[in-house]
Structure formats: C-alpha cells, structure tokens
Protein 1
Amino acid sequence: MAGRSQDRSLREELTCAICCELFSEPVMLDCMHHFCKTCIQGYWASGTRVPSCPQCRREFPSRSFRTHYLLSGLVEKVRRCGSVGHQHRMRKHLEDALQARQKEMENFLQRKRVTQEDICGLMKVSGELNFKIRTQFACLHQILEEEERAVLAELAQKEAQLLAQLHRDVHGLEEGISVLQRDIERIEQALSKMEEVSLLEVESLDIRPSVRVETQPAFDLEHYRDSCSGPLQYIFWRRMLRSICPAPAPLTFDPESAHPNLVFSRDLTAVTERSRAPPVPMNPRRFRQCVNVLSSQTFDSGRHYWEVWVGSKTKWDLGVAAEAVDRAAKVKLCPENGYWTLRLRNRTEYWATTTPWVRLTPRRAPRKVGVFLDCREGTVTFFDAGDMSHLFTFHQVSAERYCPFFSTCFSDGSDNMEPMRLCHLSL
Ligand SMILES: [Zn+2]
Ligand SMILES: [Zn+2]
C-alpha cells in the first residue's frame, strides 16, 4: 500500500499543472515550478503581457526557463512503468515469484512431513531399544540374584553341616559327662562306705574312665572365615559369566572345509596361508578356489557370538556364509551369493561386502573382530571386540544353516602371514 501511494504522489509530482499530464520536455521557471515546455510557451503566448508562473503568479522579466534533463529522465521512467507492456512484464514477474514460493512451500511441507516421520521413527526405535536394554539388564539382574542365592545357599549348607557336627560333638560330650557323673557318684559312694563294699568290686574297677567320646579335630574358625574372603566381586563375576548368553563361542576351524593352502595349529584355532600346498584329500566341502575355511560349528537357530583375532594382518575376510555356498567356484563375497562378510584390503581399507560395497571408517584398526549372528532376526553384526564398538550390521540375512566364515587371504611373502585366530574366552 505504501508503495502504491508513493507511486501515486510521485506521479502527481511529475504532472504538469497546465495540461494535467505527465511532463513532456519539462522545464523549470525561476520560481522553481515545472511545466511542459509547450504548455508554458502556450500559456505565455496566450496573451499575457508579462510572463508569469501559472502556479505562484510570480512575474518574470523575460520568457526564460531552464530545461530539466534529470526530470525528463524520471518522467520517461514513470511513463514507461504505466505502459501495458510493462504492466504485463510486472504481472509475469509477480506470477513467477508466486509460483516459485508455492513450489518452495510444497518442498518445505514435504521436508517437514519427512522430518516428522523421522521423529516418530526415532521415538519408536528408542522405545524398542529401551525395552531391549531393560530386558537384557533384567536377565543380568536375574543371573546375579540367582548367583547370590546360590552362594548364600552354599554358605548356609556349609554352616548347617558344621553346626550339625559341632552339635553332635556337644551331644556326645554330654552323654560322656553323664556317664562320668554316674561313675563319680558310684566311686564316691564306695569311698564313703568302704567297710560295706566288697573288696572284689573295688579291685575290678578300672582306674581309667570307661567312657570315650570322639569329637572332630579342633574346629578352625579362621579357615571357615577365610573360605569366603578374597576378591569376591571378581569371583562372583566369573561365576556369573558362565550364565551369560550368548557368550563368545569357542569355535574351531574345520580343516576339511579349508583350501589346500591353509595350515592349522594343532588345536585348530589358528590358520595361515602357505603358497605351497601339501596334498590333502579332496571332498565336496572343501573350498577349491579361494583360501577360505569354515568353523566346525554351524548354526541354524538362536543367537551366537564369536571373536576372531586379525592382529596386524594386512588383508582378510570374515563373517558368515550359508552352508550351501558353492565351494568349487570362485564367487564374489556378497549377500546374493550367501556371504555376509567384512573385509580388510591394503592394510587400512575396511569394507562391508554388501552390493555395492560400503566403506567403513572405524575409529581405530580392529585387532579382534566380534561377529554376532542372530538367526531369528536375520542379522549379522560386526564389532571391534577391543571396545565392542559397532562396525556394521547386515539385515535380511537368510539361509537354512549358517557357518562362521574366514579367509586369511594370501600371505604375500611374509606381509600377511600372521595367523588368523579364533579367540576362546579364557578366565
Ligand atoms: Zn503540460
Ligand atoms: Zn511559480
């Protein structure tokens, strides 16, 4: 509105008081009033004696004026703005501006919808995670409480056993005491009535008391106290660890599934690649093309976790394979071929072998990799087992039977000769 009224007053300012149109060739008189050149000339020619200003009536000695070029330009501009072409262009400009804003509005609304959906998703997943964490802690609490009950029951049983023994000792001694009491009374009686007692009877009386009571060797209270001392939290934590599920599974390599170039430690927990292959019996379970091996343990249900030492190897692949993978062919490790794996290449490049591969950027190079297989959820998750930081999760994992999968890759002389090891939880 302000723009409009400004526009109008500008137009009024630029309007000639004689013809009431926009100035044409505006000129300025000495009184500073403006008129069209032809208007003022016409006005003056129309017979007035002394030239004067039609607005303020000031009279001038001669018919003189000054051409006002700046004003001419301004008038031209205002005139152009009023033209049909200009109006049309302006309308088009406004329409374009409106359309652009409407389009942006649609974009903002769409983004707002997406963000609100994200908020809902976040809340939902947070709730699920919250429940999951509380469930797991409830399990831990239960395990801990059960351990506590078991330890206390053990203590109570020990106490009861010792008490029973000590009570038996007390009872035995009490019986002995009463036997001795009777003996003493009898002997005292005999003493007081020496003349009436048969000497024979006195002679047959043994000097030593006839009653004997066997008690336990000296009870050791200190030993009893010591039996429940030491680093109790650590002792109980170790006991508790046995009940945790899943705890790291003690896997071993299955040499019969291994490529002929792979050699194993005696306990089948370490594997390395040697370029010269010793002769091995061929069987359909053996990988023929790549230096791969599976573990002897396979899974078709439940949740399983295992840890693999990769140390400072320069390349490796590990994860999960479907039992049914083609072991005779050289195939790409990807979910479509029944492999859900992580790989290291060139010492520092970590990849998840999805299709296409996803580059991972762990905070530090993992030396021990944890693999978590959840058969029911259909997920395979990888961790840096050093600090249990999450590396990657495969979803929609599906197979009839799953095998822990390993590839040492080639040793490349001695560069990558460090064995890959299956970690067993040792406490
Ligand atoms: Zn005029
Ligand atoms: Zn004037």
Protein 2
Amino acid sequence: MIESKEIISELAPLIEECGFDLYGICEAAIPEEDQKNILTWVKDGKHGKMDWYPKNMDLRLQFSNLGFEPKSVIALGTLYNDPEYDGICKTMSFRFSRYAIGEDYHLVLRRIAKPLVSELKKKFPNHRFRQGVDSLPVPEKVLAREAGLGWQAKNTNLIHPELGSFFFITVILTDLPISVANVPLKDRCGTCTACIDACPTNALTPYRIDAGKCISHHTLEDHSPKISNSFGWIAGCDICQDVCPWNQVKARKKGIQTKREEFRARSVFKENPNSILDLDKEGFDRVFGDSAISRMNFEMFRRNVELAKEWVRKKETF
Ligand code: B12
C-alpha cells in the first residue's frame, strides 16, 4: 500500500501549481458519528426545501452505486475571498455573497484539477479517479476534515487555522488504497459563539444548521414565489463566516486571499453594482450565466431583488 505522505510529497508541486491552497488524503469512509448526524439532520427536516438531499443516502454515506469501490479520497481546497470584496460592499445597497461574485466554482475547480487527475490516471493506470465538486452527493466537508483541511466549526463550515473558512472544497475519490495516518485538526471554536449570535434567522446552534432557516438556503434553494426575510442578501449569505474571528482577525491580518482571477468580482460589481437590481432576463443571463448563481433561475433572482429592495427601504425608514 502506498503511504499518503509519499503521494502528497510527490504531487504537492503539481497540486499547488493547479492552484490549490489546501490538500490532504483520507480513507474513503464517513465516520459513524457523522453518518448518524446526517441521518438525524434529515429526519428532523433540517434540509429545508432541498428535497434532493435525502435522495441518494446510500451513495452519500456508503459510496454505493458509484461504479467502483473507493478506498481513498484526495481532498483539495482553494481560497475564494477577493481582496476587493469589502470595498465593493460599501458601494452596494444590497448584499451578495463572496462565493457568488466570480465564476462558478464548480466549473473552476473541475478545470483546475484536470492536470492532477490526468497525472494520477497516468501514474496509476489500473485505478479509477473520480472528481466531485458538489456533483457527487458525498459529504465533502466531512472528507476534507478527515483529510486535515480544517475543523468543522460551530457555523458548520470547515475552518483552517491559518487560512480561515473562505475556501471551496473538491474531492477525488479513488480505488487506490493509500495508507493514511492523519491527526485531524483540533476544534478551535472554543467558547466563541459569534456566528450563532450574528445569524439574524437563528439558523445555527453549535455545530448544526437548520438549513430551512438559513438565508443562503432561502435565496438559492427555495423556489417558492415568497421567501422569508433575506436581510438584503440576493445570493447566498456570509454573515456566519464574516463574524468569525478566524476570518476576521487571523486570516485578514495575514492578508489571506484568493490567488485565482476567476473568483475575483466580475466587472459589474466594480463598475456599477446597483445596476444588478435592474437586470432583465437577458442581462441576468449575460452577467451571471457562468456564475454559481446561474442555478438560481431568473424568477428567483427577481424575487430576491424585490425582497432586498424592501429591506433597504425599511432600513432607511428607521
Ligand atoms: C447542502 C449544502 C448547503 C446547505 C446546507 C448547509 C450545511 N451546513 O450543510 C445550504 C444551502 C444552507 C448551504 C449554504 C452554504 N454553503 Co453549502 N453546501 C451544501 C453541500 C451541497 C452539502 C452539505 C451537507 O451535506 N450538509 C448536510 C449537513 C448535515 O452537514 P453539516 O451541516 O456540515 O453537518 C455536520 C455537522 O454540522 C454535524 N451535525 C449535524 N447535525 C448535528 C447535530 C448535533 C447535535 C451535532 C453535535 C452535530 C451535528 O454533523 C454533520 C456531519 O458531519 C456541500 C457540498 C457537499 N457535497 O458536501 C456545500 C458546501 C458545504 N457549502 C459550501 C459553502 C461555501 C456554502 C456557503 C458559505 C455559501 C454562501 N455564501 O451562501 C453557505 C454556508 C452556510 C453554512 N453556515 O453552512 C462549501 C463549504 C466550504 C467550507 N470551507 O466549509 C461546500 C463544501 C461546497 C464546496 N464544494 O466547497 N450549503
């Protein structure tokens, strides 16, 4: 069996050249406690309107029906926080989450991992390698945590002690057996409850999210014509990460930011962000056609815009 240290040290230069800031390897297995928590989460209906979530539980928890039996997982992370984001926010009357201001991360992560996947296939021609960026219904945070990319925090996101939490995750599942001796990163949330206290919809209790209450879910996953208050957010929400000291103090102080041009704000955010509020269908497709929010349809976008405008009006009245 190959040792993870051996593979990592050999592939590290290529992984970094591809543009990944974090990487690690773990066994392809979801620990029992996580399986239990995920099942309870669904049983309690905490997945809100994401009816798709409970559909593939065998694949999600046991990797069944994948076409091969994965033995190991290579987990990769890439930062997405644009250094200009805070400045842009000052010029917008509404809010738009960091993860959605640039190019669709699903496409970017797939594209940048290609040289690595090709190299793995060339090096181990008798083994399978399958990459997922949300596309495979597997719990990426759990796998990335097991691979040492971060600890799973009270706001449920993965945080790295040096880089914070503004990073995307992608996993490569493989039937190549790799021996791993990872010591997972220690939970450093301590007694802090900043994320829980700041969430205006009370979606968080420590280490657990009620997705049905989360603003990100309202704006992106709820297709109903009416949604509850989104507090000015048109796409996604960053509140629980923005207030996190690991982003706010640690990562910011060190100037941790994305090196990838694709995740920097598209020009409309720099030139005239408020013009987004007036986009018609054609404009929406033009501006956001290759963004992560293109999954949100135009009707949802208009609904979110109207709600954000209402929030701005109310704020101005008080
Ligand atoms: C469904 C989903 C959502 C849902 C649910 C969020 C969630 N926390 O799961 C919604 C739409 C709300 C969402 C929002 C966001 N998402 Co999202 N999302 C996913 C997706 C597709 C699946 C995650 C999942 O399986 N959730 C199921 C629940 C059960 O998992 P969990 O909350 O982590 O629960 C664990 C613990 O909390 C704990 N737990 C659960 N219940 C209980 C109960 C008790 C008592 C205890 C002790 C523990 C416990 O055990 C669980 C298993 O370890 C992943 C991609 C993937 N394939 O994994 C991306 C992903 C998690 N999202 C991501 C991002 C970036 C976001 C947003 C920041 C986007 C935005 N700006 O709006 C927000 C963040 C909101 C938040 N605080 O989580 C990134 C996170 C990267 C990172 N550094 O962690 C991922 C990994 C996508 C990616 N490929 O990069 N997302």
